[in-house]
Design a protein that fits this description.
With 224 residues, this protein is of the alpha+beta class. It is built from 2 helices and 9 strands. The longest helix is centred in the N-terminal third of the chain and has 33 residues.
Length: 224
């Protein structure tokens, strides 16, 4: 009996370790996303997470749906939206918005590319009006749009498409939409992209009421 019990315990331990090993990679995107400088909130304010959390004592952060007609969540981003193509911003739509939202902020970044310790910023859009439910394809360039929306990326005041090289694995590009209970007093063109990003992230602290996440993969086509 003792030998049977020892064998059973060992088998259970091996099974648990195997399950943990299979699950471990699932946490990697979240750890990579946290390097992006997420707003100082409890989950799901951290980039890459879809769970519920709390902020400023106002209840749970609501999970929203963020979608695009350009690709399925987790699927391949068409070249039209990449640096190798037209490099237009993809159409985005969201639903499940909580009450009391005054604005939205969108952060799009490459989880698999780091620059000075941060994920590469492909698009940061803030002060999207709280009544909005979508962004159209091909948002115009410019630090501030007519409706007050402001934007920036690592290379300028516009959407920067994915550009992962053909020589490596596909990169994961994460679009994170935050529903906020205030407009953000961050100027669109008075600082560097890195400084503006940090200012927007800081201004978002304790203002997040909801969050939606969309993921796309991209790798350039091999040269012919």
């Amino acid at each position: 009996m003792r030998r049977v019990l020892v064998v059973a315990v060992c088998a259970a331990g091996v099974s648990a370790a195997s399950m943990a090993a299979r699950r471990a990679p699932e946490a990697a995107p979240e750890r990579a996303a946290q390097r992006a400088g997420a707003p100082p909130q409890t989950p799901p304010a951290q980039p890459g997470q879809r769970g519920r959390g709390r902020g400023r004592g106002r209840g749970a952060v609501q999970v929203m749906a963020l979608t695009t007609t350009a690709w399925r969540d987790g699927g391949e981003i068409p070249v039209k939206y990449a640096q190798a193509g037209d490099e237009v911003s993809p159409p985005l739509a969201w639903s499940g918005v909580p009450e009391g939202v005054q604005s939205f902020a969108l952060v799009a970044h490459d989880l698999d590319a780091l620059s000075r310790g941060e994920t590469v910023l492909h698009w940061l859009v803030w002060n999207i009006p709280g009544t909005a439910t979508s962004l159209p394809e091909g948002v115009p360039h410019g630090s501030q749009l007519p409706d007050g929306t402001r934007q920036i990326s690592v290379s300028g005041p516009y959407y920067r498409g994915p550009g992962a090289p053909a020589t490596g694995p596909p990169h994961h590009y994460v679009f994170e939409l935050y529903a906020l209970d205030a407009m953000l007093e961050v100027a669109p063109a008075e600082a560097s992209p890195a400084e503006t990003r940090a200012a927007v992230i800081a201004a978002m602290a304790d203002r997040i009421r909801g969050k939606g996440v969309l993921v796309g993969r991209y790798r350039a086509a091999p040269a012919k």
